[in-house]
Amino acid sequence: MDIYGKMAYLKGLLDGMELADSKEKKLFAEIIDVLDELVEAVDDLYEEQDELQEYVESIDTDLEDAEELLEIIDDDLGLVEEVLGIDDEDFCQCDCDDDCDCDGCDYDEEDADIIEVECPECGEVVCFYNELLDDEDVDTVEILCPKCDAVVYTFERDLREDLDDDIAFDDDDDE
Q1: Which listed site, 26, 51, 85, 94, has its alpha carbon 20 to 30 Å from 131?
Q2: How many Cα atoms sit within 13 Å of 71 on the Cβ side?
Q3: Phi, psi angle pair for 8, to nearest 5°
Q4: What's the half-sphere exposure (Cβ side, CA atoms, 13 Å) at 136?
Q5: Tens-place pLDDT, residues 122-150
Q6: Can you tell me whether residue 157 is helix, strand or coil?
């Protein structure tokens, strides 16, 4: 017999008792009413717990799917890096040696010079490290706004070298 059946049985016992409208009958009736409310509250908790269990299982399934997708993306990224010949050290922000895994490195992002530029299209402030401009193998660097993809900063190495040469010639003229 379930709990609702037991409550019905108790109510039937109370009704079957040959108690006149006495204090005892009122007491038993109130006790049964309180028990009935407790049964309803427990039943509601069971329903809510079942809903939560279904929700947690749904989240768990979604999380498993996301983990599988991340593994696929990681594998694909590893393949792209392998094809392009990119190493993790290529993305290192520190000035340490090639054997550095950057876990114990003393590089501090706060020490790096940061350039801030406002996007002329959308007004977004774009920040980047000036170290991006120091790569001798790259002649032109264009920084794009992450919000609207507009070019917010362009650096051309040839212009900088020409300016450096002009400055050097100007210094020679002063002598």
Answers
A1: 85
A2: 6
A3: -65, -40
A4: 0
A5: 988 888 787 767 777 777 778 888 888 88
A6: helix
Q: At what angle do helices 3-16 and 23-84 cross, to 10 degrees?
A: 170
Backbone angles phi, psi at 117, to 5 degrees: -135, 140
The string over 18-35, giving b where at least 16 C-beta atoms fall within 10 Å of a residue's C-beta and e elsewhere, is eeeeeeeeeebeeeeeee
CB 95 within 8 A of CB 107: yes
Q: Provide the total of helices (H) and of strands (E) in the chain, helices listed first.
A: 3, 4
Q: Tell me if residue 104 falls in helix, strand or coil.
A: coil
Question: Which tokens hold the place of 38?
Answer: 């407790």
Query: 32: which residues sit within 8 A by CB, 6+ positions away?
Result: 7, 10, 11, 14
Q: Domain segments of the chain: what residues?
A: 3-82, 110-174
Cα–Cα dist 155/160, whole Å: 8
Q: What is the dihedral of CA 34, 40, 41, 42, to 10 degrees?
A: 110
HSE-up of 105 (CA within 13 Å, CB side)?
16
Question: Which is it for the CA torsion 77, 79, 80, 85, positive or negative?
Answer: positive
